[in-house]
Design goal:
Elements lengths: L22 H41 L8 H7 L6 H27 L10 H17 L1
Length: 139
């Protein structure tokens, strides 16, 4: 028996003893409804916290070069990473992670009956951005 989270009803009132559903099947439905409720509330929270942290990371890495040291020789000795490529790399990883979280948000919107993921055009854009962000994070 396959259950899709989007097809589950929100209430358990239709699953009573009068409907003829036995206890093991009712436990499966209860578990699926629990997973659905976790998905409905956890994913947007994960996206919001992740985007906030990525924005903070991007701001920190972008401003890391302005450490208040005016002399170039002092900057080399005062910084753990004398090369700016670390800051660029980490901030671009944060951008790629943000793109992935926004793609996840588009998929999540479809579960709350806002059909952006299944609309022609949005699906292709999301998949393209998702592949780019995953490729960049893995390299």
């Amino acid at each position: 028996m396959l259950l899709f989270l989007a097809d589950l009803p929100r209430n358990l009132s239709i699953y009573t003893a009068a409907t003829g559903i036995n206890a093991p099947v009712l436990r499966v439905y209860n578990y699926a409804l629990f997973v659905r409720s976790v998905y409905d509330y956890y994913v947007p929270l994960l996206i919001a916290v992740g985007l906030f942290c990525n924005v903070v990371s991007i701001v920190v890495f972008a401003n890391n070069n302005e450490g208040g040291v005016e002399d170039a020789e002092d900057r080399v000795t005062s910084s753990l990473c004398a090369d700016d490529s670390y800051d660029t790399y980490l901030s671009s990883r944060a951008v790629a992670d943000s793109v992935f979280l926004l793609c996840l948000f588009v998929v999540w919107l479809d579960t709350v009956n806002i059909p952006m993921y299944t609309t022609s055009g949005w699906c292709q854009v999301r998949r393209h951005l998702n592949f780019i962000s995953i490729f960049f994070v893995q390299t």
